[in-house]
Every structure is written in C-alpha cells, then in structure tokens.
Amino acid sequence: MSLQGEHYFQVLEPRPYVYIGLRFADACKHHFGIRYGIRQHVPWPDVLEVAADLCDLKADLIVTLGAGSRTDGAKVAALAVANEAFTLDALDGLHTAASPLPKDVKACTISIINIPTSLSGGEYMAPGAATDLRSNRKLGFRHPSMGSQLVILDPVLTVSTPDRVWLSSGMRAVDHCVEGLCSVFFRTPSGEEGTDDDNTNKLKEETEEALAKALSLLLPGLLITRHFPSDLPARLEAMAGVVEANGPAVRQEERSCVMLPSVLRWNRAYGDAWVEERQRKERGLRRDTVSAGDVVAGFVAALGLPTSVGEVGVGRDKLDALAESSEQVLEIVEMAL
To answer: Which residues does the UniProt record annotate as the domain Alcohol dehydrogenase iron-type/glycerol dehydrogenase GldA (predicted)?
Structure first.
C-alpha cells in the first residue's frame, strides 16, 4: 500500500515502474521489513517467524546479508510461505525425510537475493536445511524453485566477518574440491576411460578443471586473508573460488546421480592404494615423508584452525554418537582425535 505522496508510473508492460514522491530511506521504512539474524543451525521457530512476517507484509523479495543460517533460513521460509506451512506440524510435512509427494509441494513465489559474508556457499545450491528443536535434527528441504535468483559478491562486507568463520567456511569449500578430485575423477591405472560415454567423460573433465581452478583461487585467498584480513582482492578471489567449487558443469545433485555409480565401481576395482600413489606422484610427494592428508592438515594449521576433534571440545566419550550422526565409520572419527 502506498504512502501519502508516493506515486508509481508504469513505463512499459509489464515493467518497469518509475517511482517518485518520498526520500528513498523514508519509503524503505514503510515498504521493507527487516529481521536481524537467524540463530545457528536455522531453528524451525525462527523460520516460521520469518515466514509469518513475509506473509503479513505480502513480500515478493527476500534480501539476505550474512552467512549460511540466513541463506538457508530464507530458502525454507520461502517454501513455507508457498505451502502455507506456518506451524511446526505443517513444516514437518515438507522436509525430505517426510517424503512429500512432488505434486503436493508448491513452488516458491518469493525471489531471493543473497549477499554472502562467508564462504559457506549455500547460496549456489537450491536445497536448504533447518533444525527441528523437538528432535534436535537438522532436516533438508528441497524443491527446484528454491534458491537464489541473484548473488552479490562484495568483499568489503566480509571484512567484519570473524576470522574463524571466514577461514573455516573457506575450508569447507576446499573440502568440497578435494573430495571431488580424490573420489570421482581418477581414470583407470592404464589410462583407459572404461565404459563411460563421451558425455560423461566430458563432464568429468569439465568438473575436474573447475574444481582445480577453485582450489587455485581458494588456497592463496585464504592464506593471504589469514595474515592480511583487509586485502580485498584476496577476499574476492576466495569468494570466486566458492563459485567455481559449487558450479561446475551441472548441479551438484545431478553430478551425484551421474557420477556416484562410477565412483563405487572404481573404488571396488582399484581400492585406496593406487589413489594414494597417484596423489603422491602428482604432488611431488615422497612416500616415506608425507601423505595427502598431511598436506591438508598443514594447510589447516597455517590458517590457525583446529586440526583435531579434541581441539573443538569433542572427547572419546562422544565418538559413538558423533560417528552415528555424521554417518562416518568410527575408525575415521578416531583418526581425527
């Protein structure tokens, strides 16, 4: 609803409109709702509060400024509004674990613009997640209509991000790259392409190239900003690295569909020993001195981040629960002590 003194003129069908009448700041106070923050892990009550505000304001756009919780909160809130899910029970029927029928889930109608201040990268993928505090489970929400229509990268806005958040979120992007390069893109020892068709091989090559480029931006960007936090070009390079890490070839969900069967067949045929040997040769590492894990651990230490679960307050008494909740084997978790 317009304020007194506001005037809108339609220039072309269906847009744009021209607005005159009030100072921009005064108009914003009337037309825009502002929420300061969403709690860590995106609790459902926070999401429902945002959804209710969006409905009351008849909002057609969400702009987030911040890190992952705001990004995921906006996605899930937009889905909740589209499906009139304004209670815990209603939201409980939309997450992926509830297996809603696709025809029963309505598409989001509220656009989203993300302005990230960390390197978590959630703005580059459609799915979101939020935590049901009744069970303390973080549950996923997925629909093709979810996600951002525009991402604005401004390194100036990231300078106030705590170093620990900036660097650790960057390491998550590095983890994504290393995981992809180590598990998907190895050819057979003979160098043959196996039974993959040309399209799949092209997808492998394009994605491997993108992940390698992402690392070439992320690694120096993180190291430089660790020691020179106000270096804006380095911050922007790290942000560009996250774009490369999350956007190669096809969406991540589709890459999993295409690649996972081949990954499992490859792992069954060739095992870990050949992978480690190839890693050492490509990186110029000696078998008797260092492993790929040592290289990553050294980089993490150089960023001043923890390199063991003990450093983040997780003791041996919590290993069984940690292994179960993270779907990892206990042996791997014990190695991280």
So the answer is: 34-155
